[in-house]
Amino acid sequence: MPTIGVAIAIPEPWASELQDYRASLGDPTAARIPTHITLIPPADLDESALEAVEDHLSSVAGSIQPFDIHMRGTGTFRPVSPVVFVTVAKGISGCEQLAGAVRRGPLEVDLHYPYHPHVTIAHHLDDAALDRAFAELAGFECRFTAEEFSLYVHDETAGWQPTRDFGLG
Q1: pTM (2 decimals)?
Q2: Angstrom distance (rounded) from CA 21 to CA 135
Q3: Is domain 3-167 classified as CATH 2.60.40.10?
């Protein structure tokens, strides 16, 4: 039973910049997690449902137009969760609309927390590393147009691997 995720990939050069930064903090999972905005968190999927999931994602992609994303500054989920992230300053409603549409039909899942689009830069590290990430990337900023999202499958060795892209519009 594969574990899947659905996300908006952050384009270069920012994807590598943020992934390299995450690795520099000592996060052992950084190399196996592409830089992304999650639309659906990891979920186990019966392999026989994969075709229906891909059909669903194609339908969702066709129903939503590309939208602009502006990421700026840092935020944190502490003390609830030991996470520091880059915030989505513009494009929140586009991410919410897309995530809501993705999480219907064969991908209907209950979320443990309310949906909050962001890009994780530090996770499950000590407080000093989390504080450092929060301060050092406070000035981070980038802008891009979300034109697609991807279906990822988790591989125990290689980590999260994109398996199919879905163009918006």
Answers
A1: 0.94
A2: 13
A3: no
